[in-house]
Write a structure and sequence with these properties.
The chain has ten helices and eight strands. With 232 residues, it is an alpha/beta fold. It has a single domain (2-230), classed as TIM Barrel (Alpha-Beta Barrel), CATH 3.20.20.70. The longest helix is centred in the last third of the chain and has 17 residues, at 164-180.
Length: 232
């Protein structure tokens, strides 16, 4: 079971110290902002540390970028790659994501590759061609990858009207694609995950865990989700 907490641009320095204290004994993956990575370095922690992104460049004069080698030196084990917000706001595409995954793997960082679906694609792409197109970014020689399927219109929401059958269909498709290529993997789901629906979501055939954002910021809600998914 994998539970990934994407904290995005939330929490101040004081908040992040309190947050780390609250989660230090949980078997989760936490993704803070870059400046806060060093606050997640206690020796007795149960969580794993991840980054919200990684540069597609391994080295060089790219002001503002953060390379995989630098992240690894801070104890980063996982890195998010390909989040829908990177596509929407930074115009990144599968070529960028392939380079990022390669750099992560070269530094023993496990990519958490986000495969997204818009509401329009949900309605019109019945054969899941766009899902397949995104999977083509995965390098052939990858040893292990975490795939996070996220319907974009549900990210950050608490919408209870989730199409469980559709999510299951997509995750089965992703699993089949990975198995055909002998890629070791875990598949997690994100989008509207809450304590109200996680018990139903964890019944999906191929789900190995979840990625949450809004729910991760509410420690009471996080505790409920964490308890639920650990009663597998």
């Amino acid at each position: 079971m994998i539970l990934v907490l994407n904290l995005k641009m939330n929490l101040s320095k004081d908040n992040i110290i309190e947050y780390e204290n609250a989660i230090h004994d949980k078997n989760i993956v936490v993704l803070p902002q870059y400046p806060y990575l060093l606050f997640f370095n206690r020796q007795d922690r149960s969580y794993s540390l991840g980054s919200q992104d990684v540069s597609k460049y391994s080295k060089g004069s790219y002001t503002g970028e953060v390379c995989a080698k630098g992240l690894k030196s801070l104890g980063v084990k996982y890195s998010l790659v390909g989040h829908s917000e990177r596509k929407e706001y930074f115009n990144e595409d599968i070529n960028d994501f392939r380079m990022k995954m390669q750099n992560a793997m070269d530094n023993d960082i496990i990519p958490i590759y986000c495969v997204s679906q818009s509401e329009e694609e949900y309605i019109n792409d019945k054969e899941l061609k766009e899902i397949e197109n995104q999977l083509e970014a995965i390098p052939n020689y990858i040893k292990y990858i975490v795939i996070a399927f996220e319907p974009t219109w549900l990210i950050g929401s608490t919408d209870l009207n989730i199409d469980y059958d559709h999510i299951n269909k997509v995750m089965v498709k992703i699993k089949e694609w990975l198995m055909e290529r002998n890629i070791n993997h875990s598949i997690i789901y994100g989008g509207g995950v809450s304590s109200n629906n996680v018990s139903e979501l964890k019944k999906l055939n191929c789900v190995d865990g979840f990625i949450i954002s809004s729910s991760a910021l509410d420690l009471n809600e996080l505790d409920k989700i964490y308890t639920s998914i650990n009663n597998w």
